[in-house]
């Protein structure tokens, strides 16, 4: 009965590799988000999709590409991983853009 | 620019005491404020919110106070319990339809 789920929970990979993180919400929400939390716990929005349409794209390197196959899913693909990409990535969703956001459990990415 | 920050990065309180977590914001145009709780290994969880036309809002054991004159926000937790141990984030939106900007977080530790 998980509301917002992410896979995998942990991801350890080498520099230069390409990896994907998946997110699914079963809340029937229209809007989904990706956030990055660094080692100091600072949380920053990366992307937001509303009804499968990109509405926020913060100054994120174009190595990061979100993909929303349908309203319930928002995946994050990262090319040519760098050491600085190591962080916890959170997916979130809300009924509408202006509503309360519900966060997933996070994916801890470690780039070696 | 915009910034949301916290006066204290860490806070330790005795079980049963009241906790007060403070937050300063710099954007006087912000209209909507939110407090999130993040337990270890989990995603942020919505606690309570307040709009700029209010100065106080109460929930279950939590109260948020907003002082627009000095651009200060606080979260009060009554009768703090061990389960309240977490990192607390204040966040702001310029309007309900804007992106969420998170502050750096305060770690609350409850001493049994």
Walkthrough of the structure:
The complex is a heterodimer of chains A (112) and B (112). Chain A has 112 residues and is mainly β. Chain A has a single domain (4-111), classed as Immunoglobulins (Immunoglobulin-like), CATH 2.60.40.10. Chain A has no helices and eleven strands. Chain A has strands at residues 4-7, 10-13, 19-25, 31-37, 43-50, 53-57, 64-70, 73-78, 87-94, 102-103, 107-111. In chain A, strands 2, 4, 5, 6, 9, 10 and 11 form a seven-stranded mixed β-sheet that branches. Chain A is globular. Chain B has a single domain, classed as Immunoglobulins (Immunoglobulin-like), CATH 2.60.40.10. Chain B is globular and about 40 Å long. Helix content of chain B is 0%, strand content 53%. The model of chain B has no long low-confidence stretch (mean pLDDT 90). Chain B has no helices and eleven strands. By secondary structure, chain B is mostly beta strands. In chain B, the strands form two sheets. In chain B, strands 2, 4, 5, 9, 10 and 11 form a six-stranded mixed β-sheet that branches. Chain B has a five-stranded antiparallel β-sheet with strand order 1-3-8-7-6, with no helix packed on it. At the A-B interface, strand 5 and strand 10 of A face strand 5 of B.
